[in-house]
Amino acid sequence: GVVIGIATLVALVAVFGAINPAIAALWPGEAPPQLGLGYGSIIAAHGLFTMALVTMIVKARIATLGRDIVEASADLYATPLTTFRDIVLPQILPSVLSGFLLAFTFSFDDFIVAFFVAGSKTTLPIYVFASIRRGVTPEVNAIATMVLVASLLLILISRLLMRDKTQKSPAGE
To answer: Which of 34, 63, 73, 108 sits 20 to 30 Å CA-CA off 90?
Structure first.
């Protein structure tokens, strides 16, 4: 984890070092914007590392889709966009959502990469880690409790939605 965090930091600094002079040369005003470490670099780093996981989950679902449904849609003169929106997307949406939730969970848990690429910005995991180094305070306990309650509520809502779907579907399916 530390090696990945340091490598990401070095890569981002190198990219910013190459892009910032180009922006400065093309910028019409006196003070061109400067790219640097912050929330954007955190999102980019976490997106990069979780993209492989989401891609594998969605690719596995796409591999199980029947080609005949897409071909039937084409036979009915549906445009590719309509075919994707009305046929493919509803079938891969559960895998997209599960990929998103796994990526969010891994990203929320990945303190090390966020610590290296955050710059002067503070995320919740960085804040909790810094607070724990000084000793566990009631504030840290409250944050942990809120995260736990939010997770349990999401699981409960998901379970209720799944139960409603299974009760509405016919028994023969």
So the answer is: 108
User: pLDDT digits over 29-38, tens only?
Assistant: 788 888 889 8
Predicted structure pTM score: 0.72
Three-state SS string over the chain comes to CHHHHHHHHHHHHHHHHHHHHHHHHHCCCCCCCCCCCCHHHHHHHHHHHHHHHHHHHHHHHHHHCCHHHHHHHHHCCCCHHHHHHHHHHHHHHHHHHHHHHHHHHHHHHCHHHHHHHCCCCCCHHHHHHHHHHHCCCHHHHHHHHHHHHHHHHHHHHHHHHHHHHHHHCCCCC
